[in-house]
Every structure is written in C-alpha cells, then in structure tokens.
Design brief:
Largest interface: A-B, 57 and 57 residues
Number of helices of chain C: 12
Shape of chain C: globular
CATH architecture of one domain in chain A: 2-Layer Sandwich
Helix content of chain C: 25-40%
Helix content of chain A: 25-40%
Low-confidence stretches of chain A: 1-6
CATH class of the largest domain in chain C: Alpha Beta
CATH superfamily of one domain in chain A: Aldehyde oxidase/xanthine dehydrogenase, molybdopterin binding domain
Distance between the termini of chain A: 40 Å
Strand order of the largest sheet of chain A: 3-5-1-12-9-10-11
Bound molecules: flavin-adenine dinucleotide, FE2/S2 (inorganic) cluster
Chains: A alpha+beta, B alpha+beta, C alpha+beta
Order of helices and strands of chain C: EHEHEEEHHHHHHEEHEEEEEEEHHH
CATH topology of the largest domain in chain C: Enolase-like, domain 1
Largest sheet of chain A: 7 strands, mixed
Oligomer: heterotrimer
Strand content of chain C: 25-35%
Structural class of chain C: alpha+beta
Radius of gyration of chain A: 28 Å
CATH class of one domain in chain A: Alpha Beta
CATH architecture of the largest domain in chain C: 2-Layer Sandwich
Structural class of chain A: alpha+beta
Distance between the termini of chain C: 55 Å
Number of domains of chain C: 3
Mean pLDDT of chain A: 96
Shape of chain A: globular
CATH topology of one domain in chain A: Aldehyde Oxidoreductase, domain 4
Number of helices of chain A: 21
Strand content of chain A: 15-25%
Chain lengths: ~775, ~160, ~290
Amino acid sequence: MSGLHSAAGRFVGQSVLRREDARLLTGHGSYVDDIVLPGMLHVAFVRSDIARGRITRVDVEAARALDGVHAVLTSDDLNPRVESVQMQPTMLASMPGAPLRPLANGDVRFVGEPIVLVVADSRYIAEDACDLVEVDIEQLPAVVDFERAADDTHNLVHAELGSNVAQDMAPPVHPDLERVLQDAPNVVTATFHQQRQTNVPMEPRGVIAAYEPSDGALQVWMSTQNPHEVRLACARVAGVPEQLVRVIGRDVGGGFGQKFFTGREELTVVLAARVLGRALKWIEDRRENLIASNHARLDRGTATFAVENDGALLGVFLDHLEDCGAFPVGGTGATGGFVGILFPGPYRVPLAGFHTRAVWTNTCGRAAYRGPWMFETVAREQMMDVAARAVGIDPLDFRRRNVVQAGELPYTSAFGMTLDTVTPAETLEQAAAIIGYDEFRVEQRRAFETDGRLSGIGIGLYVEPTSMGMMDPLSTDAALVRVQPTGKVSVHLGTGSHGQSIETTMAQVVAEELGIDFDDVVVVQGDTEPTPFGRGTGGSGTAVIAGGACRAASAEVRAKALDIAAHLMEASPADLELADGRIAVRGTPSRFIAWAEVARAAHLDSAKLPPGMQSGLEATATFKAPPITWSNACHICTVEVERATGIVRVLRYVVSEDCGVMINPMVVEGQIAGGVVQGIGGALYEHLVYDSDGNPLTATFLDYLVPTATEVPVIEYGHVETPSATPGGHKGMGEGGAIGSPPCVFNAVADALALVGATVTRTPLGPTAVLGALASSYTPAP
Amino acid sequence: MHDDDIAVTMNVNGERRRARVEARLTLADFLREECALTGTHLGCEHGVCGACTVLLDGDAVRSCLVFAVQAEGARVTTVEGLGGPDGALSPVQDALRAEHGLQCGFCTPGFVVSITALLAENPNPNDQEVREALSGNICRCTGYQGIVKAVQRAVSS
Amino acid sequence: MKPATFRYHAPATLTDALTLLSEYGDDAKVLAGGQSLVPILAMRLSRFDHLVDVNRVDGLAGITRENGHLVVRAGTRQRALERDESVAAHVPLLARAAPLIAHFQIRNRGTVGGSLAHADPASELPAVALALGAEFDIASERGTRRADAATFFESLWTTTLEPDELLVGARFPVWSGRSGFGIREVARRHGDFAIAGAACALAADDDGRLARAAIALFGVASTPWRAADAEAALTGAIATDVDAMEVAAAAVRGLDPTDDVHASGAARLAIAQHVVSLALSDALAEVRDAR
Ligand SMILES: Cc1cc2nc3c(=O)[nH]c(=O)nc-3n(C[C@H](O)[C@H](O)[C@H](O)COP(=O)(O)OP(=O)(O)OC[C@H]3O[C@@H](n4cnc5c(N)ncnc54)[C@H](O)[C@@H]3O)c2cc1C
Ligand code: FES
Ligand code: FES
C-alpha cells in the first residue's frame, strides 16, 4: 500500500517523502567516520584470540616505539579509573550484571575481548602497532556450549560471580496448570533452538571523543541510537560533569538495538581521550563488529501445550534457556522474563507458566536485537504448528480456535497482561485472505502428489508490547517545539534516528498539529546540546512517545498562538481554528490572521500581545507512555524446499499488521520490510558459529550470511488501523517485522517437510539442516 | 608522510586530484581522507557489502579492494559525482527517494553507484537481472523492497 | 581492517615484472584484480614486502584465437568473458561460468589469471579449465613453460606456480563439432562461492556417440576434481541413452568433502551429485540438439 490512506490528515497518514533522503543519496550524510577533528588520532584494539585464559604477559614496548604511535594503553592505565557499575547503562546500573571493565585485566573471557588500546596517527599505523604487541595467555577450558554452562561449576566465566547462571526465574506454577499438563486429552511437547545471530548494522560502531583540558569539556560523536544515555554514561566513565559533555550522532547507519546502550569499546575510547587529553577516533571494522560488538538470539525453549480435542488450548508452559555471553550490553542482557510473560501471545490461554534461565559463556555478550525477547513468538508460533499437527487440525484453524477475538477485549492473560485495541484475529484473516491460504493448500497437495514438490505455508502471529511506559527512562520523551519569528518551526528531540525517518515523521506530526506546512517544520535530533533529555530511539517507541511529546508541546504552542490571534482579531480563542498556515474564525474563513503574523507578534512586537503575556512562542513538553501500547501483526509466507539440495526459497510473503494510526504508511511498510528480511536471514542464513574452544568461525561477511536482493521475496502488506488510546492513536511497530518472520518462515519450511514426515527444530534452515531432516525422514508414496 | 610514499594523480568526479600516499592506502580511504568525499562508505573492507562501490573508468568496483596508487591516471566517479551540481538528484537517486529505497542511508551510496552502472549497461533489465545486479550490495534496513522498485522506476522513467 | 605496509611495483612490461618476481622471490606477491588478495592483506592473514601489480603490464590482457584454442591472457577481467563474443562462440562453458563468479563489481576487477592462480577449490574457472583440458602459459626469468590444468592445481590455494613465476595466459581448447556444455552450482546466496558445482563438457560423433566426456566438480575437495569414473562411463555411450542421475551418482563416488560453516560434508556431497546431474543434463540436451 502506498499513497493516500483513508483516515489521513493533511500530513499524518500520508506517505510523505523523506527529509533525510537528499543528503544521504548524494553522499552528504554525516556519519561518525565522516567527522574529522584537527589533531585527531586513531585507535585500534589488541583483542584476545583465546576464549578463556590468564594473561601472563603483555609487552607493548615494540608497539610504543613504532613511528606514528602516540600511546599504547593497558588495563593498568585505564581500569583503575572506573568501576564496573559506571559502565552499565544508567537504567540498569542497580541490576546484576557482568563485571565490566575497559580492558581485559588479568584474564580474558571471550575471543575478541580488548586487551590493549593503541593510539596512532592513522588506523593503518594503529593496526601495525597492534601486530607488535605481545600478549601471552595461559589458556583455560572455555565455557562455550550454553546448554552445559549452568552445570559447569568448575570453569566459571566470571569467577567473582560464583556461578555460570546469570538469571533464574521460575514463578510458582498454578496447580491447575500442573494438572492439565499431565491430564489434558493432548499434551504436546517440543524443543526449539534458535541460533546465535547479530544485528549487523551496515555502519559498524564508532566514536570520536575529544576532551579539552582547558575548559573540561568532553565532546563525543558516536554512532548511537540514544545520545542522552551516551552522555550520562560518558560523564560517569570519564568523570566529566554532565553539563560539560556533548554527544552528537547525526546520521547513524543502523543499529537495531546494538547502539541503544553505550558499548564497552566506545566508553574505553572516551576514557582514553579523557586521560590523554587528545581527540581520538575509533571506527569498528566488520570483523570486530561480528566477533565483539554483541550477539543475540541464542535461545532454547521447550514448550508444552495442553490441548483439548477440539483444539482449545488449556494451558502452556515454556522452559527457556538463553546465552548471555561474557559481557552482555545492559545488565545480564537476559530477556527471559519477557519471553516467559509474553509466551501466551495473542491466544486465549487460561493457564500459563514458565521457567527461564540465562547463563554466562565465554563468548561475545548478548544485547538487544530488534525485538530482544522475540523468542516468545518463535517458541509459541512454532509450537502452535507442532500442536496443530499433533491434534490433526490445520495450523490456520488451530489459531482461529484459540486467538483472542474482538469481542473478548480487553483480555487479561494468565500473567495479568491486558490486551486492548488489538486485532490478532482480524490480521490473521486478512493475511490468510491476501495469500490465498486455502488455494495454496490445494496447490501444495497437487504439486506434491504430481511432482513430489515440497512447498509449505507458515504463519507467525503475535502481539507486540511497544512503547513501554512501565520502565523509566524508556517511558518518557520530551519535545521542544520552537516557533521562530518568521513562523518557521523547529522540533527538538532527544531521539537517535538510525533509519526510522524521524526527521520526516515527527515533522508530519507537528505540522499537522499546528496547521502549518510540512516544509516549514524542521526536526533537530541526534545531539544532546540543542535537545531535551530523551529516551533514545528503540523499543518501538518513537511514534507513541516522541510523537506524544511532539503533540503535547505543539498543543501548548498552539494554545498560546490562539490566545495571541484571538487578542489581535478580537475573537474568542475557542472560536478559532488553525489550518493551512492561518488562524481563522471557525465558519468564517475570510476572517483570519496568518500564522507568521502571530509568530512575528510573539517575538518582535510585545505590544500586540494580550496583557500580561510574555514574548516568545515555544514549549517543551514531556509525554509518559501508558504501561504498554500493544500492536499486532500476522505474517504468512509460502516456501518451496528443493529436495535435492535442501535450498529453501521464500515464494510469497504477506504481513497484515495493526500499528494503529500510521503517521507515514511508506515508512511503516519500510520498517516492516527491513525486519522481515532480517527474520528471513535468521530463519535461513545467519549463524554465528564458535568452535568448541570458543573461536568464532564466522568473522567475515563471506561466512556470516546476510540476505541480499536475490534471497528475498516481494513483501505484500495488509493494514488494519485500530487506534490506540494514546494521543494520535499510534502504536509502535519498528521491531515487529523481525519478530513474526523467523517462526513464519520456519513454520513454512516445517510444513513443507511434513509432507514427507520430516521434522526440524533448529534454525538456520540451511541445506545441512534441511537435507539432514529429509535424510532421516520416511517418504510416503505421494 | 613516508619516504616511500607514491605520487598519484587521478580524476575524481571531474576534478584532478594529486597526492602522495602510502601504497597500502585503499582507494576508498583516499577518497574519504584525501579528497574528503565521505559518501563512499566502508561496511566491511573485504569486498562483500558493496557500500564502497565507485566507478573506476566507468566500471563499478569495490574501492576497498583497489589501492589508490592503482588508480593512477584513472577516472573515478563517486556518489557525490552522480547528481547535479546544484544538489539535484540523478534519476537513480530520485527513484530511490520516491520508492523509499533507503532508511539509514549507509548502504545507499553503493547502491546508487551499482544501479547507475547496471542501467548504463543494460537500460532495460528484467526482475531477475535487477536482483542479481543488486546482490553485490548489502542493505540491512530496507529488505530491498524499495530498492528493487526504485530500479524498476528508474528504468521506466 | 587495514593492510600492512608493502613496497609497490607497477611494471609496464612482462620482462620487468619477471625481473621483480625473480629478485624478490618469496617476499613478493603478484597483484592482479586484487579481489582475493586485498581482503587477505586487509585482514592481515598474510603479508608481503613487495606487491607486483601486473595490471599495467603491456599485453597481459586480451582474448585471441590460436589454432584450435582460445587464448585468454591472464590479466583479462572476468567480466570480459561475459561480454566477449568469441568466448561465447568458441568456449561457451567459460562464458556460462563467468556470471556465476561473485558479483559484477567483483568481476569488473577480478582477472582470469588471478582466479586460476588463487586456486580456490570452490572457484568456477579452475574447474572449467580442468574439464576442458586447458593449458597454462607460465613465464619466469628462467624461461617459459606450459602446464596442464590436470596437474596445475595441487591443493587448497596452491598451484605449481613458483614465487618467481607469472601466469601469462590460459589456452582453452575449442571443442568443435557436435558438443554440449553445462555448468551448475548451488551457493548459499547468489554470488557466494559454491557449496558445490559441476562443469561438464561432451563431444559426440555423428551418431550421437560420446567421444569425449569431461566432468569437473568444484567446492567438494581441496582442488577442482575430475570425475574420472563417470567420464569413463559416459565415453562411448549414446547421448540419448545416458541416465544423468546414474552418472551423477558415479561422479561423486569416492569424494569425501569436509564440513564447514556453510554445509556439512554430507550435504555438500548430495548437492554435488545434484549439480552434476543438472550440468550433465544441460550438456546432453545440447549434444542432442546439435545435429
Ligand atoms: C565477495 C567476493 C565473492 C567472490 N566470489 C567468488 C566466486 O563465487 N567464485 C570465484 O571463483 N571467485 C570469487 N571471488 C574471487 C574473485 O573471483 C577473485 O577475483 C579471484 O579469485 C582472484 O582474481 P584476482 O584477479 O582478483 O586476483 P588477486 O586477488 O589479485 O590475486 C589472487 C592470487 O593470485 C595470484 N595471482 C594473480 N594473478 C596472477 C598471475 N597472473 N600469475 C601468478 N599469480 C597470480 C596473486 O598473487 C594472489 O595470490 C570472490 C571475491 C569476493 C571479494
Ligand atoms: S566496504 Fe568495500 S565491499 Fe564492503
Ligand atoms: S538503508 Fe540502512 S543499510 Fe541500507
């Protein structure tokens, strides 16, 4: 869908072309590596090539002696200046976490862990110097297999924590649940593995830090989703008062969660810049990004469903295990609590329970990746198909019988989560209709029976908790709406746009609210100096939270503008309306005053203002989101599995979604598409592999396989627009595409393989997995 | 500056550029650092992602896999050289904008150059040809939907 | 990810190039298209004190016909194989192999000689050379020699080329008369090195009896691999009688590919068998149609 949409406003609801595009298309964007400061030096890290071991010697003399090298820093130079907790994200500092440190100190805990920081005239020379650093490490047995980590009490990833278990949550199980999981007419259990993946923003991480000793100011350019959090973290780690720290991240080449909190290397570089009093630049290369930035998604779940013979779900239980790696970004990095609570999803599940554990391993740390807890959808949706097959009901029908219907809303889950203004049943039907579910089933049979061809159809249905208001500071955003004397408007936001089109969508919202032209509104963001404190860009929160703040600030500005206009026109503010750059008397459009005239009066002509009113026309307002704004979607795709090669092709892909009122449908569809393709990558291609000693085997783009244009289908969209209760009626949606797609593709492949009795339980579904499944299956005569 | 630096002269976007550089300096780093043309991006530095694609004597190549000294005497066109001098967008750039073929924009210069090269050689590619030609560039944001459509749009315009 | 220092040489003549290679021996490396070498240098997987860039060597690129052979000079870009009409006309297998290599931006730069000298076992061109029985012209200050594709590829990324030697050209025999060709591969993504691939060349007499048959697999062993048993089974057979599936099964007998992150050995083997059947079927169809 593109173009006009039904309930569209003048700007909100329109596929307005993007503000950001012209500079990015012509090579004039401003990413961190594009910034050059006078006298700036370049950083490279010596990293561990051993997963677990004791450092017995670090010799930096030869490196220091190299021409063009300015400093070679070890843990002795940096670590004593910071405590672990200072490096944790602000909101998580009080939570349990890995013992973070700038540089490895005494021991190493994963391959890629930084040990030495080199500062040189260029990155080329810095790497030369890295080659000259000698590090001796006494290798110890590494904890690599996350399924065995918890039981390993001898080899500990973090000896100071006393255990490899990072988190263990087991809410009490309701006796009735225990009963149905024993006695239900059908009790179905399956275990699924999701493989280690990573975010892969096309721009790796990067930072420039410049400390000016004369005034004590620290300027930081960073590829970040969250400039204000970066400022807090840098202030803590560098020991610079927050008001003297400025963080800028103008254009950011993707993040998908990787750049939401401040990474260890970035903080280490900032600290080094503070210590050396020089401007330092560190641009992560792709190898570093793949082995040392963050990993995600490595989960195992055993799902048990109790099902009535008619297909009704009686109770569900999930036993979940996740790998946090050694130094996850953000507390333990564990998402298991969310996975457990969200596991029932959009279904009517009277009884639910879970047990989740997270473990430390000697591997790269876990962090958020687009829908960090999406394993709830993976495990549930894959299990829905397994259960449907077990009770002999088609997976679509099985979902129809269990999905929460409109008439049941608000629906409170077994864990006390209340679904409202969601439409899972509607999107299920819409997606099934668009893809032609029943027709596909007929064709699937025919293709199998006549040619032995294996095709399949899969569904991924989910509700997504977005814009979460129960977790400060993620709950709240602020906007400053500033009207200039000419009537032109700037909107100042604490966001860190990294592809979300915020410069466009938030301008749409403010233009709409103020009744002025889109072209007269500019959005300023990605810089802590001119913007109010904000929550950053992530967690599918911009439309609701930043959008809410924009609306709130616009409302204050508008109210003042109306007061001024009313005074000038001798009318009552209540009789005035704002549209098309004018303030007019409702019903008498010929009686109006131009918006610019009001702005002029507000700034330049105080005599024209109502008695007692101060000059100026701007407002800063905050908006705190409700605890959860649910959005929902249904993904359905069809695939073909080539029996001879195990190659899977996605044939058609449909997403029917409800993100409430769309600010910009083009942008909504773009966000969905990106997420879907990441999910296709997760289901079929992407896999970070370690050998049993903890060596990463997929440290290049030839080995870590991101889908390209030849691997992806055309994505078809359906929209259901049910306004949320938030101002504007929006719901978050940035992550959803990546949540629904992996189980959708998995289910389609499993559906195809089921034709010959083959089963799969692990991703990625590359040729090895698919051929393996086919080889160990029986092949009934067509 | 080292004694064994090598003088190199090339024409970049119509301008003559001279510099003395280390032999190991990649063309990508030359463009970014010596010419301050930062539109050429580095997404992998090992030839896979395509973000660094430029035209070398008219052919699209990875500038991370060419040394600057190898471009001695060559004509190099970067993304900055494809639009109009007044900032006007080329048909390919315009089509990418119209079809929402970019989000974070980091991969975009590489796609602009690759698509420009594709259409110069094959003004009427079919869907398969378009996708194969795009497969040497990675985008993590768009799922390629808008990019594929943009090529089709640029073809029909 | 930046390369270490090296001294750069850009000889303009073959003689100068050979002098440099002879002078620096093990410390020098030939730089052709750079599409394999530069990533290795950037990742600092190996380093060389001297790079001898052969891109400016006069006469090192170009495609010519020479009594029964198509001679492809080493510096010829892989892209030229797709565009050159004489390649399509005389060595169609080469023309069909080229688009399977990487992406067009890489083929614009990568050379035929570089691909052969780099000898990646999953590369298309070494397998094509092996299947067709190509010969390689090799020069050094010590003189010139001609090597057979059959013995040139020694092991993973290793050929019989000595450090002072330059691959100058490859001579691909023109299979004239009633012949057919096929090349097929399966890769994880389009443009990736193949999990497994097969190149097949057949020549038949007027009765449709196969006089020559060649099948070379790539991606399945440490070098491109010739399926001698399958070839023997094909030779003398009537093209229309051949059961491609059966031959394919014979072709991979004895292969034992290793596991890697892209495919297990078993998956690789199954895929190899499949691509042989496809490449062979293509070639057989062409033989049948070429009356
Ligand atoms: C992303 C990507 C994907 C790729 N996919 C494929 C693929 O699918 N199939 C495939 O076959 N290749 C693939 N390649 C490799 C590509 O084809 C290379 O171009 C080729 O392998 C090497 O050729 P080159 O001219 O670039 O050689 P270079 O990289 O310059 O050199 C490679 C090696 O050969 C030596 N050498 C080069 N020329 C000579 C000579 N004339 N005499 C002696 N030694 C010489 C060099 O010293 C070096 O050791 C890919 C490359 C990349 C970056
Ligand atoms: S940076 Fe050159 S291909 Fe990725
Ligand atoms: S737009 Fe972000 S990588 Fe392509």
